[in-house]
Amino acid sequence: MSKPSLTDLKAFQAVAEHCSFRRAADLLGVSRSSLSHTVRSLEQRLGTRLLHRTTRSVSLTESGERLLRRLKPLLSDLDTVLEEASSSEGRITGKLRINGSEGAIRLLLQTVVPRYLALHDGVELDLVAEGRLVDIVGQGFDAGVRLREAVPQDMIAIPVGRDMRFLAVASPRYLRGRTAPETPDDLATHQCIRQRLPSGKLYRWEFHRNGQDVAVDVPGALTLDSSQLMVEAATDGLGIAYVPEPYVQAHLNEGKLVTVLEAWCPPIPGLFLYYPNNRHVPPSLRAFVDLLRELQM
């Protein structure tokens, strides 16, 4: 039996972890037909079926589960060894994959990323912005960036920025002729721009004041799934939006939006970069963390 190549094994790993030939092909930069041929050839070499395939789904067979379980740590260690060999000559190389919300990735692009790429031109930085919270290890990411409250407790977490606030905002045009809300309960008489979470649930607006926590299922004719779109809708006078402060700071400075219920919107721990505490940190991630800490000083 001829031994499979490293490319064959990484192809199988990508399909197995994503349960999708399309997503794995996009990640690897190959065509779906080529990837399917590679995996079938691997199965023929090993003499066993690794994947169940239907027109709608891909899942692991028992043999595939055993192979993936043994293969993942070996390939991870190999990537680390190769990166360390390159960095021992003073130059960090390899790929660094980071997952985060759109706002988190935008903040990285505005702060640490330009300097990181200038310092480490041998690193391929792969930033993926998506609303849903993913298993960064299972999905093949080196690190994630989320609000502190969303970071799993078993992860090492490094602050990316300062504490932040969620603000309730509206345009002066919307508030003209209306009484601005003074308590969260007053939102019941307003048009609120509701937010649908990646899970499909509607977000309940959360407020805090003087030790009192309030979560409100706000009314509203308009529901959006993007903070940026919510800001645009609020600016157009369509209602009150509740979004992270960085999204609206410029609009507040220009007078296009004003805050309401500001006393009910205290700061909360902001965005954190996080990664597993039980795995060897590759040089590319270590350099990113070191630069992030330097910029926080």
UniProtKB/TrEMBL annotation:
Keyword Transmembrane helix applies: no
Pfam families named in the record: HTH_1, LysR_substrate
Gene3D superfamilies, sorted: 3.40.190.290, Winged helix-like DNA-binding domain superfamily/Winged helix DNA-binding domain
Domain of life: Bacteria
Swiss-Prot/TrEMBL keywords: DNA-binding, Transcription, Transcription regulation
GO molecular function ontology, one term from the record: DNA-binding transcription factor activity
Keyword Cytoplasm on entry: no
InterPro entries assigned to the protein according to its UniProt record, in alphabetical order: LysR-type_TF_proteobact-type, LysR_HTH_N, LysR_subst-bd, WH-like_DNA-bd_sf, WH_DNA-bd_sf
GO biological process terms, semicolon-separated: DNA-templated transcription
Protein family per UniProt: Belongs to the LysR transcriptional regulatory family.
Protein name: HTH-type transcriptional regulator DmlR
Organism annotation: Halomonas elongata
